[in-house]
Amino acid sequence: MDEETEANFARTESPFLKRNLSWVDLVSILGGIFVIYILLAYGTFRVMEWWPHERVLMYLNAFMTQLAFVLLIWTLKKIRHWEWADFGWQPLSLKKVLSKVLGIYVITWVINISYVLVLFKYGLTPPSTDVYSKLLGHVTWYTLILNLILAGVLAPLVEETLFRGIIFGSLQAYFGKWTAAVISAAIFSGLHLQAYGFFPRFILGIALVYLYDKYKSLYPSVALHALNNIVATLIAASLL
Fold first, then answer.
1. Long-range contact list for 24-33, CB < 8 A, 24+ apart?
2. Of 66, 100, 87, whose CA–CA distance to 220 is shortest?
3. Contact 225, 127 (CB under 8 A)
4. Can you tell me the distance from the alpha carbon of 47 to that of 43, in angstroms, rounded to the nearest whole number?
5. Cα three-residue angle 123-133-40, rounded to 5 degrees
6. Contact between 170 and 21 (Cβ < 8 Å)
7. What is the rounded distance in angstroms from the CA atom of residue 165 to the CA atom of residue 41?
8. Alpha-carbon distance 22 to 34, whole Å?
9. Do the beta carbons of residue 196 and residue 119 sit within 8 Å?
10. Are residues 231 and 187 in contact, defined by beta-carbon separation less than 8 angstroms?
11. What does the pLDDT profile of the chain (240 residues) look like in tens digits?
12. What DSSP character marks residue 218?
């Protein structure tokens, strides 16, 4: 078997290889993510100086962030001529993975609860000015709907495509599976800009990578991401 035939065979057998980005593309994607955060944060603070509706601006920022991520993904799709399957949207029956998703979810919650107990032991609590506390707390029926759409639908779909499908899928070609998992999970957690929540989201990021890598599909990781966010939203709204 010659080199070209081997390369074609490898691309057929491994869905990840077809999705690998070059270093230039990968750095461009990461740079685009950081630029999106910086520009939207800057714009939000500037508007806040003359329009004091803070919660409205936070919602606009959150939805615009997801929209900007969608445009980033769509741009990559058009430029590189990828199909959605190349991003990780491989068909998969959720019935086959539901028990695994629920099991991983329970494990992440056990770790997170232990982490919170340690923080409380040392007198550390979330700051009242935290953006997630402001968005998810003191909800009305319409803000609850917005929270569920944002956290339970948009974020899982968009962020799994971006962080697992694109970033992890490309990083592991250069660093190997677990180093790529750690790097992508750290980026995923760090971009939430929440110091005390970094560790729980990092653990969630590792769990999401595990599901994606195990099943070679984004559907299980999207399911876990959505489940985690929906439960957290309902707890914050004192509905669970």
1. 25/76, 25/80, 25/170, 26/167, 26/170, 26/171, 29/72, 29/76, 29/162, 29/166, 29/167, 30/167, 30/187, 32/72, 33/69, 33/72, 33/162, 33/191
2. 100
3. no
4. 6
5. 125
6. yes
7. 25
8. 18
9. yes
10. no
11. 443 443 343 444 444 445 678 888 899 999 999 999 999 989 988 888 888 888 888 889 999 999 999 999 999 999 989 999 999 999 998 888 999 999 999 999 999 999 988 888 887 776 665 566 666 666 788 888 998 999 999 999 999 999 999 999 899 988 889 999 999 999 999 888 777 788 999 999 999 999 999 999 999 999 999 999 999 889 887 777
12. S
Cα three-residue angle 112-114-119, rounded to 5 degrees: 95
The full set of domain ranges for the chain reads 3-236
Verdict on whether the full-model pTM lies above 0.85: yes
Among all chains, which residue has been given the structure tokens 């769509």? 74
- For residue 26, give the amino acid letter: L
| Structure tokens belonging to residue 99 | 């028990």
d(CA 222, CA 160): 6
